[in-house]
Amino acid sequence: MLEATGDILAVDTLARTAGAAGDFAAIATPVADSAAVSWGTVTAAGMFGTASRLAGPPAAAAQPFEWVVTGGVFYSVAILACFAGFCLLLYYFMPHAVTVVNMFRGTLYVEKLLDEHNYIFETFRRLILLVGMLITGLVIVRYGDAAWGDVAAGRLPEWALPLPVAAVWVGLLAIWAFQVAVIKTAGWLTYSGRFTGQLLSLRNLTYGLLFLLSTPLMLAVVLCPPGALPVLSVILFTVCGGLVIFLLIRTYLLFIGQKISILYWILYLCAVEILPVSFLVILAVRNIQ
């Protein structure tokens, strides 16, 4: 046993003796009295090096994304109803669907379709437009839910969450009714009913083609998980953008074929195709904000 008077002895218990194994040598090192020791503050860089940094508080676990507006029963039933309607249309009107898809064959084929007034074919065009607009409304609400779902949940009670779907459907039908009314009124005022009738038929055919080709993608968008939404959106917007360009080209060729000034074609695009859509978009964004 080591004894010390006035000094503190420090014992190293890790140093072995050169003698018998298992014995430790006690190395006594005199240390000054604690009252004479000067204490200082050690920084993190001095302790752990200049490359060290302080760790922040632990991050909270990410909550799984939940659909607020489109996660209810009403939205799911609407998807099933639209999907069933689309499948029934393809089952009962498959030859007419193929006829519409063949619009890509050329101008002469399109002109022949414009003069087609078969009752069954007209019924198919109206039904595919209706089903297509309903599915488009579901897609719009899906994107709105992804962007402003929390805002809608804070403003609407739980029983009113299906209302945005119905509001978008009413808005789309209002846009379509406005466009048809403007075209027919213009034809009545300018005594060009035959031309405006062809323009309406061309719009119906082209939008029918748009819904035929894009409905499978739109159904995938409304059913996909949040992680797959960006990829499917790029594909959907690419297809729809190409078909909208096809519509613009066809309407331009129709105006030029009737020897109508291109100025009237531009006025048609602004007053019929762009104005009602932009008006409803601005109205919806202002109400959400």
Describe what you observe in this structure.
With 289 residues, the chain is mainly α. Helices cover 66% and strands 2% of the residues. It has 9 helices and 2 strands. The protein has helices at residues 44-48, 73-92, 94-101, 107-114, 119-155, 163-189, 193-223, 229-257, 262-288; strands spanning 8-10, 29-31. It has a two-stranded antiparallel sheet with strand order 1-2. The radius of gyration is 37 Å and the shape is elongated. Residues 1-12, 14-22 and 24-28 have low confidence and may be disordered.
Question: What are the salient characteristics of this protein?
Answer:
single chain, 289 residues, mainly alpha, 9 helices, disordered N terminus
Name the helix and strand elements from N-terminus to C-terminus, one letter apiece.
EEHHHHHHHHH
Secondary structure tally, helices:
9
The termini sit apart by 82 Å
Shape: elongated
Give the tally of β-strands: 2
Mean pLDDT: 78
Tell me about the largest β-sheet. 2 strands, antiparallel
Unreliable sequence segments: 1-12, 14-22, 24-28
Alpha-beta classification: mainly alpha
Q: Largest beta sheet: what is the strand line-up?
A: 1-2
Measured as a percent range, the helix fraction is: 55-70%
Strand content: under 5%
What's this model, at a glance?
It is built from nine helices and two strands, in the order ββααααααααα.
Write the SSE topology.
Blueprint (H helix, E strand, L loop, with lengths): L7 E3 L18 E3 L12 H5 L24 H20 L1 H8 L5 H8 L4 H37 L7 H27 L3 H31 L5 H29 L4 H27 L1
